[in-house]
Amino acid sequence: MLLCASLRNAGDGSRRELAYRSAVAFVLLIAAASAQAQYPTRPIRLVVPFAPGGGTDIVARTVAQKLTEIFGQTVIVDNRAGANGIIGTDQVAKAKPDGYTVLITIASHAINPTLYAKLPYDTNADLVPVSLLAEYPFVITVHPSVPAKSLRELIAFARSHPNQLSYASSGNGSGPHLGMELFKTMTRIEMVHVPYKGAGAAAVDLISGQVQVFLNNFLAGMPMIKAGKLRALAVTSLKRSGVMPELPTVAESGAPGFSVTGWYGMLVPAGTPAAVVNALKDAVVKALRAKDVNERLSGEAAVPVGSTPEQFARHLDTEISKWASVIKQAGVRAENY
Fold first, then answer.
1. What is the pLDDT of residues 11-26, one digit of tens each?
2. 3-class secondary-structure state, position 131
3. 42: Cβ contacts below 8 Å, ≥ 6 apart
4. What confidence tens digit (pLDDT) does each residue in 249-267 have?
5. Which of 21, 61, 261, 327 has the fewest CB atoms inside 10 Å of its own CB, making it the most exposed?
6. N-terminal to C-terminal alpha carbon distance within the chain
């Protein structure tokens, strides 16, 4: 109605100009809607901000394969490791918001805002949630040379041999690092922290005996546990895992109330059209419900989720608050990334 009134009140030249601009705007709107409806029309890049071989990499490649089938477009996994996930995350935060550059990340995404004095991106403003992919427990593993067959024995050994054991993590301030700091506080033990650039590198040195303890991602650690290269002592969730029900929880093995669980999530650059975000979410949910994907993840102790963007946003808020408390209590701080 406003357009009609404007045309009536304008001169012939002005009316033609208004009509032309309106037509162009309408065509562009239709074209944009059509482009979003056809998404994707070219390959999608899933950025994993950690080194190959870790749990995030495994989940990303499992999901990428199924998304390739669903979309009919190649979905590529691109590992951009470094700085506790910050380098890869920053690349996605600054990417074009068109749905073709996607982040697959973990709890460190909620840890970094408190851990680091300054980040090159705004965690809340520069990235938007798509879906929570899966949740999983960690498992405390040791090298077979460690004289402890149970978690209680490990705690007793560490108390009588302070700082003689070293524990690996996938990076300073990572979930495994903070989880072990919480474990140390609750059990009153001292061990030396050895950070690595990713869980894969940490696992290599753990297997070789360069470090003795690792709060391992269950998904990535399971093959080494089954092969006898590592000894599993306890899971970090409050309930035992259905994959290894014989394995006790940390809470029932000397640290009552201890609970640390990890997660995998998908985010895209802020400004990505809602239609594209929803298309990604729908495809991810479908992928996670696929029998082969579900079995691949649940068989390794990861519980597929597949949430809405709103549900994942609430989960992120809770995680940021939780880890902020742990970081402050442990006195962990990293000024530079």
1. 555 555 544 455 444 4
2. strand
3. 73, 100
4. 999 999 999 999 899 999 9
5. 21
6. 55
